[in-house]
Amino acid sequence: MPRPLAFLIIGIVICAAVGSALFFFFSRDASPVVSPAAPLEERAPSPEAWGGEPTAREVAMRAAVAWQADAMLATVQSDDTGEATPREDAWTFLFVSASVPGKGYRVQVAGQRVTEAAEIDYVASGAAFPQSFLTAAEAVEALHRLPGYEQAEVLGVEAVYGSSNATWYWGVKTPRGTVSIEATKK
After folding, report:
1. Are strands 156-162 and 90-96 parallel, antiparallel or unpaired?
2. Structure pTM?
Protein backbone atom coordinates (compact mmCIF):
# COMPACT_ATOMS: atom_id res chain seq x y z
CA MET A 1 0.00 0.00 0.00
CA PRO A 2 1.45 3.45 -0.88
CA ARG A 3 2.59 5.36 2.17
CA PRO A 4 0.27 8.44 1.72
CA LEU A 5 -2.75 6.17 1.38
CA ALA A 6 -1.81 4.31 4.56
CA PHE A 7 -1.53 7.61 6.45
CA LEU A 8 -4.91 8.70 5.12
CA ILE A 9 -6.57 5.46 6.23
CA ILE A 10 -4.91 5.62 9.66
CA GLY A 11 -6.01 9.26 10.00
CA ILE A 12 -9.60 8.45 9.14
CA VAL A 13 -9.66 5.57 11.65
CA ILE A 14 -8.19 7.76 14.40
CA CYS A 15 -10.65 10.60 13.68
CA ALA A 16 -13.58 8.19 13.73
CA ALA A 17 -12.42 6.73 17.06
CA VAL A 18 -11.91 10.15 18.66
CA GLY A 19 -15.21 11.45 17.27
CA SER A 20 -17.03 8.42 18.65
CA ALA A 21 -15.34 8.88 22.02
CA LEU A 22 -16.43 12.55 22.11
CA PHE A 23 -19.96 11.57 21.18
CA PHE A 24 -20.24 8.92 23.89
CA PHE A 25 -18.58 11.18 26.48
CA PHE A 26 -21.05 14.00 25.88
CA SER A 27 -24.12 11.79 25.52
CA ARG A 28 -23.51 9.28 28.27
CA ASP A 29 -26.87 9.83 29.97
CA ALA A 30 -28.81 6.58 30.36
CA SER A 31 -32.01 8.10 29.05
CA PRO A 32 -32.70 10.84 26.56
CA VAL A 33 -33.13 14.30 28.00
CA VAL A 34 -34.76 16.88 25.83
CA SER A 35 -34.68 20.51 26.85
CA PRO A 36 -38.02 22.28 26.93
CA ALA A 37 -38.77 23.17 23.33
CA ALA A 38 -38.53 26.83 22.50
CA PRO A 39 -41.07 28.17 20.03
CA LEU A 40 -40.22 27.22 16.44
CA GLU A 41 -39.43 30.83 15.55
CA GLU A 42 -36.69 30.87 18.21
CA ARG A 43 -35.29 27.50 17.10
CA ALA A 44 -35.44 28.24 13.35
CA PRO A 45 -36.43 31.81 12.47
CA SER A 46 -38.31 32.25 9.22
CA PRO A 47 -36.41 33.84 6.31
CA GLU A 48 -38.58 36.95 6.71
CA ALA A 49 -37.35 37.35 10.31
CA TRP A 50 -33.75 37.86 9.23
CA GLY A 51 -34.10 38.89 5.58
CA GLY A 52 -32.28 36.13 3.71
CA GLU A 53 -32.17 32.55 2.54
CA PRO A 54 -32.45 29.92 5.28
CA THR A 55 -29.28 28.27 6.59
CA ALA A 56 -28.80 24.51 6.50
CA ARG A 57 -29.62 24.39 10.24
CA GLU A 58 -32.90 26.23 9.72
CA VAL A 59 -33.87 23.96 6.80
CA ALA A 60 -33.09 20.88 8.92
CA MET A 61 -34.95 22.26 11.95
CA ARG A 62 -38.10 22.81 9.90
CA ALA A 63 -37.92 19.22 8.61
CA ALA A 64 -37.42 17.92 12.16
CA VAL A 65 -40.37 19.91 13.52
CA ALA A 66 -42.51 18.36 10.77
CA TRP A 67 -41.38 14.97 12.19
CA GLN A 68 -42.07 15.89 15.84
CA ALA A 69 -43.19 19.31 17.08
CA ASP A 70 -40.84 19.12 20.09
CA ALA A 71 -37.74 18.11 18.08
CA MET A 72 -34.45 19.32 19.51
CA LEU A 73 -31.03 19.20 17.89
CA ALA A 74 -28.67 16.57 19.35
CA THR A 75 -25.69 16.78 17.00
CA VAL A 76 -24.63 18.20 13.67
CA GLN A 77 -21.73 17.03 11.53
CA SER A 78 -20.14 18.33 8.35
CA ASP A 79 -20.66 15.97 5.45
CA ASP A 80 -17.74 14.45 3.60
CA THR A 81 -18.06 16.03 0.18
CA GLY A 82 -14.65 14.93 -1.06
CA GLU A 83 -13.48 18.52 -1.06
CA ALA A 84 -10.25 19.69 0.56
CA THR A 85 -12.13 21.62 3.23
CA PRO A 86 -15.59 20.99 4.71
CA ARG A 87 -18.41 22.83 2.94
CA GLU A 88 -20.34 25.31 5.02
CA ASP A 89 -23.60 24.09 3.50
CA ALA A 90 -23.39 20.26 3.57
CA TRP A 91 -24.45 18.84 6.93
CA THR A 92 -26.06 15.90 8.70
CA PHE A 93 -28.29 16.83 11.63
CA LEU A 94 -29.59 14.42 14.30
CA PHE A 95 -32.64 15.42 16.29
CA VAL A 96 -34.36 13.87 19.31
CA SER A 97 -37.85 14.22 20.72
CA ALA A 98 -39.30 13.48 24.14
CA SER A 99 -42.39 12.26 22.27
CA VAL A 100 -40.54 9.27 20.78
CA PRO A 101 -37.90 7.95 23.23
CA GLY A 102 -35.16 5.86 21.66
CA LYS A 103 -35.73 7.38 18.24
CA GLY A 104 -34.03 10.17 16.40
CA TYR A 105 -34.45 11.96 13.11
CA ARG A 106 -31.52 12.26 10.72
CA VAL A 107 -31.69 15.12 8.23
CA GLN A 108 -29.05 15.61 5.55
CA VAL A 109 -28.91 19.06 3.99
CA ALA A 110 -26.89 20.37 1.04
CA GLY A 111 -27.25 24.07 0.42
CA GLN A 112 -30.80 24.94 1.36
CA ARG A 113 -32.29 21.57 0.39
CA VAL A 114 -33.02 18.43 2.40
CA THR A 115 -31.36 15.57 0.52
CA GLU A 116 -32.39 12.80 2.93
CA ALA A 117 -34.47 12.51 6.10
CA ALA A 118 -35.32 9.40 8.11
CA GLU A 119 -36.34 8.28 11.59
CA ILE A 120 -33.60 6.15 13.17
CA ASP A 121 -32.90 4.35 16.44
CA TYR A 122 -31.01 6.92 18.50
CA VAL A 123 -30.59 7.77 22.20
CA ALA A 124 -29.12 11.14 23.09
CA SER A 125 -30.01 14.48 24.58
CA GLY A 126 -30.71 17.64 22.68
CA ALA A 127 -31.10 21.37 23.12
CA ALA A 128 -31.77 24.51 21.14
CA PHE A 129 -28.75 26.25 19.67
CA PRO A 130 -27.89 29.33 21.73
CA GLN A 131 -28.22 32.66 19.93
CA SER A 132 -24.49 33.31 20.46
CA PHE A 133 -23.30 30.07 18.83
CA LEU A 134 -19.92 29.87 17.09
CA THR A 135 -20.14 28.99 13.42
CA ALA A 136 -18.12 26.06 12.09
CA ALA A 137 -15.76 28.57 10.46
CA GLU A 138 -15.24 30.34 13.82
CA ALA A 139 -14.51 26.97 15.47
CA VAL A 140 -11.87 26.28 12.81
CA GLU A 141 -10.39 29.75 13.42
CA ALA A 142 -10.27 29.01 17.16
CA LEU A 143 -8.47 25.74 16.42
CA HIS A 144 -5.89 27.56 14.28
CA ARG A 145 -5.18 29.95 17.19
CA LEU A 146 -4.13 27.01 19.40
CA PRO A 147 -0.39 26.35 19.71
CA GLY A 148 0.61 23.50 17.43
CA TYR A 149 -2.57 23.73 15.34
CA GLU A 150 -1.86 26.97 13.46
CA GLN A 151 -1.61 25.17 10.09
CA ALA A 152 -3.60 22.04 10.96
CA GLU A 153 -5.62 20.49 8.15
CA VAL A 154 -9.32 20.25 9.05
CA LEU A 155 -10.94 16.95 8.12
CA GLY A 156 -14.40 17.80 9.42
CA VAL A 157 -16.39 19.42 12.21
CA GLU A 158 -19.14 18.15 14.46
CA ALA A 159 -21.26 19.99 17.03
CA VAL A 160 -22.24 17.90 20.05
CA TYR A 161 -24.45 18.84 22.99
CA GLY A 162 -22.94 18.02 26.37
CA SER A 163 -25.94 17.39 28.60
CA SER A 164 -23.82 17.00 31.74
CA ASN A 165 -22.97 20.71 31.66
CA ALA A 166 -25.63 21.93 29.18
CA THR A 167 -23.02 23.16 26.72
CA TRP A 168 -22.53 22.77 22.97
CA TYR A 169 -19.06 21.87 21.68
CA TRP A 170 -17.49 21.75 18.24
CA GLY A 171 -15.27 18.75 17.62
CA VAL A 172 -12.79 19.88 14.95
CA LYS A 173 -11.21 16.82 13.33
CA THR A 174 -7.57 17.04 12.27
CA PRO A 175 -4.99 14.44 11.28
CA ARG A 176 -3.65 14.75 14.87
CA GLY A 177 -7.05 14.03 16.43
CA THR A 178 -10.24 15.85 17.34
CA VAL A 179 -10.06 19.10 19.31
CA SER A 180 -13.07 20.25 21.38
CA ILE A 181 -13.98 23.93 21.10
CA GLU A 182 -16.75 25.33 23.31
CA ALA A 183 -19.39 26.55 20.86
CA THR A 184 -20.99 29.33 22.89
CA LYS A 185 -19.54 32.77 22.20
CA LYS A 186 -18.24 34.51 25.27
Report:
1. unpaired
2. 0.66
